[in-house]
Amino acid sequence: MRGAFDLGTAERVAAGGPLRPEAIAGLLASLAGKSLVHIRDGTAVRYSLLESIRQFAAGRLAASGEETAAHSRLLDWALGEARSAEAAVGSTGWAAWASRLSAGQDSIRAALSWALGGQEPEAGRELAARLARWWIATGRYSEAGQFLTTAAGIPSQTAPGIQARVMIGAAWSAFHIGDNRRAAPLVADGIACARQAGEPQLEAWGRNLLAGLAWHAGDADRIVGELEASRGLSGPADPALAARAQSLLANAAFLSGDLAGQDRHGLLAIELARTAAGQEGLALALTMWAMPAIIAAGIQPATVAALDEAANLTAAHPDRFTETIMRCCRAELFATLGQLDEAETEVGLCWAAGRSGAVRLVEWVGPLAEARLAAARGDTATAVGALRRAADGGRRVTMVMFVPFALAGLACMAAIAGDESTAAAAVGEAAAELGRRRQAITAAALSYAEGVMAWYRGELTDAERLVREATVQWHRCGDRIDASDGIELLGVLAAARERFADAARLLAAADAARQPLQYLAPGFTANRQAAARATGQARHVLGDDRFKQAWEGGHGLTLDEAVAHAARKGGGRKRPATGWASLTPAELGVVRLVSEGLRNDAIAQRLFIAPGTVKVHLSHIFAKLSITTRAELAAQAVAQDVPARGRTRIRKPAVTAGGATDTAPCPGPRSPGPGR
């Protein structure tokens, strides 16, 4: 035996031959009197040996020829404990059994190592299988992976139920340390074995993991589909599994842009986790519920309380997977609140938790936390670099659902800084990553970045349209943080178009909206410097009295009212949604060069834009004209006499780096704007 043990364990393992179980208590007392056994008092008396004495005794045992028999008794004891504990999963007795396993884990490991080492492989395989749920529930992902991988590699004709436990447990272990490529085939094989064994609860556990893999893939429909499939499976209620399912449904709602649905499912997940034995999964449920509030819906006292509780839970019951995510969320929380020292501390703790637990997820969430802190500090270059590392890390660990999110943030920050080539490349890359997946909030961010780029090119009508569409979409999703930034940029664009009273109202409304959201330090979509310049320009043009009147009117608007106000403001010529009249000047410039036979890279060089921007323009052109090929576009362009229209001229944005107004035509296709 290893570590501490109780009297019952000693009686089952040590008794044998002439040594009767009833003699063990007296023997332990005698050894304790000679300081050879240490007695640990507590709710239950436990015994332990100094390691030097244990090694000496092990040598004597080996010399006696009784070592194999003793190991067999230890294995029998461990199997009995594991079977009883597994039978209690989902019941009120599960927490007590999980505690018993934790108390005896050193001896259980010794039994597993001996059995799987070749002495009793079938029994060792069963022991690992029965322990799988306990390992995952208590955050012992690396240990689970080690033993279950060994068990899975042993040739066996074992019962399909045991095989299902081994495969599904190994898959959950791989998932939590970030090895999704390995988890997917394991869980598929495990589900097949569970069906063969006729164990619906095991199949439900596996389908829950398939939904988790769908979440990492950014596929909201698959999440719902897998959970719907598991809902029809019979078996005893398991609040922990039900809580995880609700968290995954919350994630699906978030991907679809339904933050109200995310909040509803997230709160139900917390409620269910509180009723689970040992409150299994509660820290993760609290963290996942709080995350959208920090990055989108707005921070409330309950948000802070949820993450504080999650931190306390992971301190009491270590779970490096959950702690890694939770520390990232706390870093973003403090960065949003403007508490930058606290945010920096949490960034360090996020990396420490991920690395100590071999949680590869940290390759994505670590850089994301760094990027949010850098944005709050106004360090655009560091934020852009960190977001690039976050996107690359997400790909490495196959957490592709947040790759477009990171790229959209990168595109917004690069566009605001005036780096159009980086921004355009990120927009094109993110659009390709999204494909047909539904991520409404991220899609709005891409439109927003395109709007900022249009502003820098002097295409103010298109800029307003794109930013307005993004703002309305964010607001419709419940993303109030980004919507407030959208309202602010619409105020900047209103000033650029010399609608100064409207600019003052929108800028004031954005300022008022941020306070109840606790959005105090700038995020990825903020352009506070441009807002300050536009505010100063509006004050100068309107005069103090008119500016004050407009500002107070805007400050009295709710965010809902501000978005409705912005949605009503067309700000210039209205373009139809389709047809040649719907094309912007920039799009017409691309059409002209396509009709000359130029490829994307040559068009980019001629227009001084990034190839990614050309790709985005072409996708919009094809959609507006209902065509699919460049040949069709070139033919229609000749029919429309587009090549004869000459080079598209663009205008500088009215609000320049120095705050002056300049609406004169620009001789070239590109000119510097604010912050360039």
Description:
The chain is elongated, with a radius of gyration of 31 Å. The longest helix has 21 residues, at 67-87. It is built from 33 helices and 4 strands. The protein has 676 residues and is mainly alpha-helical. Strand 1 and strand 2 (46-48) form a beta hairpin.
Mean pLDDT: 87
- From the coordinates shown, what is the CATH architecture of the domain at 70-289? Alpha Horseshoe
* CATH first level of the domain at 70-289: Mainly Alpha
Tell me about the biggest sheet? 2 strands, antiparallel
How is the CATH topology of the domain at 70-289 named? Answer: Serine Threonine Protein Phosphatase 5, Tetratricopeptide repeat
User: Superfamily at the CATH H level of the domain at 70-289?
Assistant: Tetratricopeptide repeat domain
Total beta strands: 4
Strand arrangement, major sheet: 1-2
Estimate what percentage of residues fall within beta strands. under 5%
Oligomer: single chain
Label the overall shape: elongated
Radius of gyration: 31 Å
Instruction: Supply the helix-strand structural class.
Output: mainly alpha
Total helical elements: 33
Helix content: over 70%
Low-confidence stretches: 646-676
Q: Span between N and C termini?
A: 69 Å
